[in-house]
Write the structure tokens for this entry.
Amino acid sequence: MSFTKKQLLPGETVVALVHQHPVVLLKPILLVVLVAIVCGFLSYYASPWFLLILLAPLAYLFGKVVARNAKEYVVTDHRVVKQEGVFSKSSFDASLDKINNVFHEQSMLGRVFKFGTVGLETASEQGTTVFDFIPDPVRFKNNVVRQRETYRRSYASQNTNAHQDVPRILDELASLRDRNIISSEEFESKKKSLLDKI
């Protein structure tokens, strides 16, 4: 099962969804080619039954393709998700407001074939989470940073608006108290709860 709309939070949208770079399939593909050459040679000089040996590396390649498709790295406007597993699923979510630092690494081979590693340093017990064999890691990193900054600006704006509303609400509560609609105790209680939110 891939990342679906059912896994989204209310009001959340997917910004990017990527799988590992196809380079992760290079070893099993080379293994299939090598075994095919050997089996072809043996079946030509001995018996065609040697071609059945090719089934094992083909099954191995198929398993790697399925595992690659099941491993998903998702960036939304609320969080970053790492989901993997074919039969049993596991996932890691990092809320955008908990991400302190985002970094990427690329080897020489990674720069040639455009893959690399992206890491997230979070303010949680997990510490650093690594997303390996990311296609175009700079773009993935920039998506995370852009969404984090947008999320933080939105959160700061909401807090500013809430702070600006406190004096107006206090004036309204004082007016209700003065007209004996609420008691002085209720006024003090509501005033305290409002001031605690600032």
